[in-house]
Amino acid sequence: MSAELEDIHEECGIFGVWGHPDASRLTYFGLHALQHRGQESAGIAVNQKGVMRCHKDAGLVNDVFTPENLRALGQGNLAVAHVRYGTTGVNPRQNAQPIVVNHIKGRMALAHN
Length: 113
Fold this sequence. Notes:
By secondary structure, this protein is of the alpha+beta class. It is built from four helices and six strands; from the N terminus they run αβαββααβββ. The protein has a four-stranded antiparallel β-sheet with strand order 1-4-2-3, covered by helices on one side. A two-stranded antiparallel ribbon has the order 5-6. The two termini are 26 Å apart.
């Protein structure tokens, strides 16, 4: 194996959309394209007119996001998503992202690698 390939260590995938009227659908397709970066869990958080909705679970993108789950997220105009390649932790559902927190200034979603 070449030195360049030995340095490649793909871990997790993060995708986001800002300012598009159907951010949740675009984010779903982006997350699907990044599925190779993590097959342990998947999640999407969507902001629609100040209301944050999030769905995440253990499994592949197609399994986590049914048509009903995507409809429940709404369209939104911004979204962030994550697929996880676990390197620590034993519970993929508990470690699924994005993380949604309530803050004094409102809800916030965060996905990290």
